[in-house]
Structures are given as structure tokens and as C-alpha cells.
Amino acid sequence: MNPKITLAISLSLLLAFFIVHVTITQHILNRDQQAAAAEQQTTWQASIPNFAAIPNIKERKQAFFDYLAPFIESENAKIQELRRYIRKQNMQTPSAQIKQLAMQYRLKPTDTHIKQSLLTKIDSLPPSLVLAQAAIESAWGTSRFAVKGNNLFGQWCFTKGCGLVPSQRGHGQHHEVKRFTSPEESIAGYMQNLNSHPSYALLRDNRFMQRKNGEAVNGCFLAEGLIEYSERKSAYIESLKQLMRVNNLED
Asked: Which residues face 176 on adjacent strands?
């Protein structure tokens, strides 16, 4: 056979093999990506119980409270453990973890009162307040953001694809409602938000004052520091207080 013809056939076969190989590889990658996305979506959707399926309102509320209470208790316990760690530290030579905590809670690592500043910010939140906000922000666990994103508190994120796009997002806005891998992660994110964001400094100051006076930390009192949490401002705070009172959450 003519050598040129043989070379042409060989090149054609090599090219065909390459095309088939690329096609199969791309198919496998697409399949794996779709499977991973489906698995993640299943995890997000399966985390929160179907509270909407409970027709009795009183029973639905109680189921919601009972479901979240252990997660809140667990996160508060982690925060108290962190406080114990901070108290034991020698702040003359702050450790790498202390410096990391300072950045995480929006403090300067060079803060001369870093221990007290951290202890003022890193503290547990009364379950009454957490439950009330979760109930309002997630429509008792039935909102789209709760069911599909495990987001119980309406927390935002600003990277494309980081969450769910609000159906009524204003023109020119780019935020999304953050998607969490679990309700526990949502609670942890919410607590860090309240414990670190400048908008909630009054809440933290009120909590510190109650701690200093030896008083039990009160959800209705701390709610006064959430004026910036909602566009409803004072009306939102009154809604939180009323929900806590009606459902005896302070008890």
C-alpha cells in the first residue's frame, strides 16, 4: 500500500479515537457533575421536615420549636466552650487562633483589650430570640428559602450561585438568599452574624450589661438591638416580642 495512504488512514483512525475519547470523557464528567448536584440538592431539600404537612397550627408550631431547640442548644454550647478557651489565653502574646477569631468577629488583632472585646462579641443567644426570628424569617420552616436552602433567617450572600435568587429582588440588586448545607449551619451563621456585625452592636451591649448585672439574658430585651435586621424596623421588633410572649418562649 502507498505509504502516504497508510499514513492518512493512521491519522484518520487516531483522530477518530481522540474524538471518541474526548466525547466519552466529557460525558462522564457531565454525568458526575449532575450526580453531585443532584445529591447536594437532595441533601438541601431533605434536611428540614415538611412542617406545611401539619394541618394543626398549634402542633405545627410546637413541632418547629422542638425540631430547632437541640440545634440552638448545641450551638450555644459551642460558643460557651469557645468563651472558656478565650478566658484561658495569655493576650500579651495572642495565639494564631485568637488572631483568626479577631478577624472573624471584625476586630483588629492589635486591639489592646482583645480578650474583653472577644468575650463581648462571642456569647450565646437566648433560644427565645432565635426561635422567634426563625419562625418569622422562615414562615415556620415552610418558606422557599428554608425548604430549598436550609436558610431559616433570610441571610444574604453576594456571590453568583451562592444561594437562591429572590423572586422580588429589586432592579440592580445582585444579592441571593444563602443556601446552607443544613439547618445547623444556618443557625451557626445567624449567631455569628448577630455576634459580629456592626449593625447589632446594641444587642451585644445589652447582653453584656445583663451578664454584668447577673441577670438572665432576655430575648425581648435583646430584640431591641435588631432595628437594622428588617426594613420593618420597630414593627419587626414588636413582632418578635409578641411572638415570644404569645408562645411563652421566655419560659
From this structure: 157
CA 131, distance to chain mean position in Å, is 15
Helices 183-196, 201-212: inter-axial angle, 10-degree rounding: 80
- Cβ atoms within 10 Å of 217's Cβ, excluding its own: 18
Cell numbers placing 106: 471584625
Task: Give yes or no for a contact between 206 and 195, defined as CB atoms under 8 angstroms apart.
Answer: no
Alpha carbon 113 to chain centroid, angstroms? 29
Task: Report the first-to-last Cα separation within the chain, whole angstroms.
Answer: 94
The predicted-structure confidence for 52-73, as pLDDT tens digits, reads as follows: 999 999 999 999 999 999 999 9
What cell was used for 243?
411572638
The pTM assigned to this predicted structure is: 0.80
Is 177 within 8 Å of 149 (Cβ atoms)? yes
What is the rounded distance in angstroms from the CA atom of residue 182 to the CA atom of residue 78?
A: 17
Q: How many C-beta neighbours within 10 Å does residue 124 have? A: 20
Beta carbons within 10 angstroms of residue 83's beta carbon: 15
Q: Are 33 and 152 in contact (CB under 8 A)?
A: no
